[in-house]
């Protein structure tokens, strides 16, 4: 959990340029840390790549994020893992907004 706090704090402290905010969410790691803060059983960390080495691992992370978000009641029917990976602003903002509410 302290790693989660550190990751979120670092993301918040980083100066944000418009595109950078979408870059931060493409591998699923930041969404993972947000989900864990909301509900620590939403995603099993044993099956999550905290340091994804390639696009396949990032895509798997995004699938897990979407599954975890659905478990806690988010409407993810229009959000696909590839949307997050391809920096689709609507998908990222939609998921982020639902998690923060």
Question: How would you portray this structure in words?
Answer:
The two termini are 21 Å apart. The mean pLDDT is 88. The protein is mainly alpha-helical and 101 residues long. 61% of the residues lie in helices and 0% in strands. The protein contains 6 helices and no strands. Helix 1 packs across helix 3 and helix 3 (29-38) runs parallel beside helix 4 (55-71). The protein has helices at residues 2-13, 18-23, 29-38, 55-71, 81-85, 89-100.
Tell me briefly what this model is.
The chain is mostly helical and 101 residues long.
**Count of alpha and pi helical runs:** 6
Low-confidence stretches: none
Q: How do the SSEs run, as a string of H and E?
A: HHHHHH
Strand fraction: under 5%
Helix-strand category = mainly alpha
Distance between the termini: 21 Å
* Total DSSP E strands: 0
Average pLDDT level? 88
Main beta sheet, described?
A: none
Tell me roughly what share of residues is in helical segments.
Answer: 55-70%
Shape: globular
Radius of gyration: 12 Å
